[in-house]
Amino acid sequence: MRSSPPRASDGTLTDVRLDVVELPNLRLVVTPPRGRRVEVPLGMTPVVLGSDPECDVVIDDARVSRKHCEVRRDARGVVVRDLGSKNGTYVDKVLVAEAYLDPKLGITVGSTRIALEASSGSAKVALSRAFRFGDALGASVAMRALFANLERAAQTDETIVLMGESGTGKELLAKGIHDVSHRRGGPFVVFDCSAVAPSLVEAELFGYVRGAFTGALQPHAGVFEQANGGTLFIDELGELPSELQPKLLRALEARQVRRLGATEWQRVDVRIVAATHRDLRARVSTGQFREDLYYRLAVVEAHIPPLRDRREDIPLLVEHFLAGMSPPRAWSDLPPNAAELLRHHDWPGNIRELRNTVARLILFPASGAPSSAPQQRPTPFDGAAQANALLNLPLSEARAVMVDGFERAYIAAKLNEHAGNVSRAAQAMGVSRQFLHRLLDRYGIRRE
User: Fold this and answer.
1) If pLDDT is split at 50, 70 and 90, which confidence band does 383 have?
2) How many angstroms separate the CA atoms of 443 and 406, rounded?
3) Closest CA to 260 of 190, 192, 209
4) Whole-angstrom distance, CA of residue 426 vs CA of residue 434
């Protein structure tokens, strides 16, 4: 097994060796109770169907939930998965949570029919022969296809947008792009739009001069200047305030920035990699994201599959996390039923949740593997002996395990205190409702 693609002495890829698989051309034919039928090609990226404008296929049907179901390909065929819809997803009149599709069997959601149809010919999909890209791991077809695309795109200076749920490893992939590009000798700078107060985003992006505003006691270089000659990773791009979107577009077009309070423009040489968990195309259609900025950024779009859609990668990831512990651990150090439980969990927190769960199972075997209702599981960090066990982990991993357990228990308690009302719970927690929704999605916590 080749662990990484071949590189020249400067670290750039020299001979990206690929496998190629041929997949039959498939499409979904969606026939709603009113309006036109829609045909959507089914490629390597899952297709989400529902009434929400951010879905890949928006269905005008009162009995269809906001995000009703998804259809995806995997190594064994085509899978339909219900996304917790109110009225359920049916295959040939049988209610299913997840099922493989036979082209002869139709899907019913609400009053809408969905058929899987094959057309002549096939599509060729390039797969990397490497099972990792940077520090991101994956042997599944979906991940090797992603790695192949990134290996090629990394050799250019084109802007790349990584799309995927929270915890799927977007920053690891961005760093991998930087490390195999010709910019690897330059800085790699991370800017998280969701982690900075809206009033400070412009100052952090473009910098400021002394006296530009109250508290600007010293000049400060923005992230564009900090990343000059290297790569700027803009995380959670979908959270960028609308009033700053034209300023970011200008910086990208002109390759110039001006600090707040300054009169002179400075040239910058920066490669942009952006990431978001939101559907930017849907936000463009609703006016929440500028269309011209979207097309300027999304030169290359890479969709990162969630862990639940590539469960065959779980053993590889678990072995990696175990080997990285101090001292290194093995599968035999996990509880006897861990493999089966890990394989059947839905992983709303994706790789981050898996990593923290593996660490928790090593430290506190009695706490059990993740359940389908994580909000009901008490936090395991309640004793001196358990706290001392964390000393066997690096600081970053120990902190992640602690935060994971605390946040789950804290959020569950606050929701219970306010009878499942997200708005009131968020107000009591001192956070926005949107931020609390993100945490609920990360940990798979249901409002009920």
Assistant:
1) very low
2) 12
3) 209
4) 9
